Amino acid sequence: MLEPDIRAFFKRIGLTLLSALTWLLFNTTIGIMYDFAFIEEKLTTGNIIFYAWILVSFVLLIVFIYRLWKKPLH
Fold this sequence. Notes:
Blueprint: H1 4-33, H2 45-70
Helix pairs in contact: 1-2
């Protein structure tokens, strides 16, 4: 049986990895599947919205991870 602090630490690591990988998988899937990540002949509205979403969601991901790790373990 693990100590409660170690268990909470591993839970934070798992939640951090899960949220970062989910963010990465979601954004790359949407960007590649719907061709929003690629700028073909000219910049489209879909490209602008996609890259704006990437920036906003990345900032929200960083804030989430920061708040997760800011709390004390006990």
